[in-house]
Amino acid sequence: MDIKKNVETVTDEIQKACERSGREFSEVTVIAVTKYVSIERAQEAVNAGIIHLGENRSEGLQEKYNCIGAKAKWHFIGSLQSRKVKNVIDTITTIHSLDRLSLAKEIHKRAKQKISCFVQVNVSGEESKHGLSPDEVLSFIERLSDYDNIVVEGLMTMAPHSEDEERLRTTFRKLRELKEEVEQKNWAHAPCHGLSMGMSNDFQIAIEEGATHVRIGSKLVGREDQ
Fold first, then answer.
1. How many other CB atoms are there within 10 angstroms of residue 21's CB atom?
2. What SS3 state is found at 101?
3. Could you read off the pLDDT of 213-222 as tens digits, one per residue?
């Protein structure tokens, strides 16, 4: 697999999506999802200019961090068990899956500095997905003011696996509107300017609807577990 060529292709697609929506390329952070690939392939992504890597298991993150270290910025993008916070808190820059107060309490307790977090929202309402329902978000974020080591960078969602473009747009649009509601609160602990949404199959649509962070796996680094 030619990672460098993949990076060029994805970069071009992001640029075009930004142009279509009147946005700047610099507004979008690309996170290479490396959970299904080896340390070597994750290193290839870094060598090709991708500095943001996303893992969804504490064990996988630790293995790759031990080899790649601070050459990358590490994002935890999966559901995080409270008991495993201590295993990742010293290596990550951002958590994309904050969805309960017990997790917030553990992050606050273990962090040695402020941690950027995205609050995970289950916009589509699918039972298979984690996250708060949209009507729980404002009260949840308000309560996070009790935890000084948490900064709410934004909101995160996973769209349905669907070929229906309008359904995807509706999901992303709802998250953007919810993000704007949080921004209007002007909470010091929750600037909430970010939107972590969009993956390999739908990141262009997500960018057109306001995504600031896209989590791209197969289209960048492929999969080695198949």
1. 15
2. helix
3. 999 999 999 9
Q: Where are the alpha helices (DSSP H) in the chain?
A: 3-20, 39-47, 58-68, 85-88, 101-110, 137-143, 165-184, 203-208, 218-221
Let me know the angle formed at the C-alpha of 171 by 176 and 201, rounded to the nearest 5 degrees: 110
* pLDDT, tens only, 74-121: 999 999 999 999 999 999 999 999 999 999 999 999 999 999 999 999
pTM for the model stands at 0.96
For 22, 78, 109, 156, the CA distances from 198, given in Å and listed in that order, are 18, 14, 31, 9
Cα dihedral 192→194→199→201 (10° resolution):
110
How far is Cα 189 from Cα 204, in angstroms, rounded to an integer?
30
